[in-house]
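Working notes for the structural subgroup meeting. M.R. asked for a predicted model of this chain before we commit to crystallization trials. I am recording the input and output together here so anyone reviewing the notebook later can reproduce the run.

Input as submitted:
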Amino acid sequence: MPDKTTRPDFAKASILALALILLCLCIGNAGPAQQPDAAEVIRLVDTAVRYRVENVLGFTDIEHYTVYRGKDETHPVAELTARDTYKKGVGKSYTVLSQSGSAVVQKFGLRPLLDNEETLNKPGNVEQSWFTSANYDMQLKPEGIQKENGRDCYAILIRARRSAPNMVNGTLWVDAKDGSIVQIEGVASKSPSPFAGTTHMMRQYSQIEGFPMATHARAESSSLLFGRTLILIEYSDYHLEVQTASGTPSAAKP
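Returned structure, recorded in token form:
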């Protein structure tokens, strides 16, 4: 016969085991996490864009462009490295630092790409490409918070309110805490030329001095005339000029 003095300990262990079982059952039967308010998330995105526009007065960075043709993603047909200089209220300008490969791709591909970026970033044009609810119809995806580039994000379906080569139909990922852009992926709402096919693009952003700045981009298009073309862009060596709390500009490095 077991020692009666062990019964209290046995009873306590039984009660503890029962409590753990009930706790697991409660967790297993818990309802889904509450979905964030879609309108609030979209307001957060608009606020994040406005904050960046108001406080980034200028920046420079180094951009490296690599072009591949067909199925070969090992041997580029052309490369170009340029310094990008942006000034708020003025726009962008590029200084080519080096270039190599096909002269045809340089002349009819990469140089027009830089010229187009300068045009799109002129005052009066750049505002129309911001990722805001004024330029895009936005719908929050129902998955809730998800990981993207190691960050907790909301995924938002976006559709451009007008057709333009620099407007994207696809998915926008934003930081769940502050609404800043983390990644964009989709297709251009309009082909850049009658000879080009649908352009698929992706751009990733990282926080530089507290502001989302592009770090990597990929654009792929295919057409009967030119075949498949892939352009990779790497952004580095950022130097920002930002508005300080006192209202005076301040040079900042990543």
